[in-house]
Amino acid sequence: MSGRSSLLSLLLLASCGGEKVPEADPAKVQALAKRMVTNVPPPAGARDCTVGDLHGVPMTAATMLQLAGEPVPTQPEYRDWVNPASLDAPAARVLIDKAASETDKRRAAATLLGAHAFIVYKVEMVNVPLALELKELKRGAVGMRAIGYEANGAVKCILVFTVQNDLAVANWAMDKTDKALVDPAIAKAVREDLTKQIEARIAGFMAQ
């Protein structure tokens, strides 16, 4: 994805004695992320994204909240398995990592502030009972939006899409759920499959 390798490339340059790696104030990223959080549009609040709009620095809505210094809600829409870290640009992961050094954070901030655009993946609906250990035998589905932002945090477009569990995995999970309570191992397998399906769907967007 665009933006995923920039921070790593800059760090490599530094280690090889190349030109000085750019740095910036992480507080400016926090201010930008707060603007993006404030500018989350309603379902029909922006034009539809084109393929070209989906090439920007990526992150999940959960990561955007952390960058903004806001609490991440506990609802299913913000769980890790529908907001996988693999969807985040490396620079975003550095800035939310409490163990990262100040130098690395400043370099990550420079990468994000130099981006031409951002893509935030926001989960709007989690209809996956088995993943939540609820005995309702149905194929899981997650409703999502890709929200395109300009470099200044203004919304430019929205793409609405749905991701389902793999049919074979869903059928297996329903067949195996033959007791009153859902086996945690089955719920885990359903969650892991949904993560995989979300990653594959978004990788498909980036490949266009």
What do you see in this structure?
With 208 residues, the chain is α+β, with helices and mostly antiparallel strands. The protein has one domain. It is 39% helix and 17% strand. The protein contains seven helices and four strands. The protein has helices spanning 6-15, 26-38, 61-67, 90-95, 102-113, 167-176, 184-207; strands spanning 57-60, 117-127, 141-150, 155-164. The protein has a four-stranded mixed sheet. A hairpin with a 4-residue loop joins strand 3 and strand 4. Helix 2 crosses helix 3 (61-67) and helix 6 (167-176) runs antiparallel to helix 7 (184-207). The longest helix has 24 residues, at 184-207. It is globular. The N and C termini lie close together (11 Å). Residues 1-6 have low confidence and may be disordered.
Provide tags for this entry.
alpha+beta; 208 residues; 4 strands; disordered N terminus; 4-stranded mixed β-sheet
Number of helices: 7
**pLDDT averaged residue by residue:** 90
The overall number of domains is 1
**Care to count the β-strands?**
4
Question: Strands across the major sheet, in which order?
Answer: 1-2-3-4
Largest sheet: 4 strands, mixed
Structure class: alpha+beta
Termini separation:
11 Å
Bulk shape:
globular
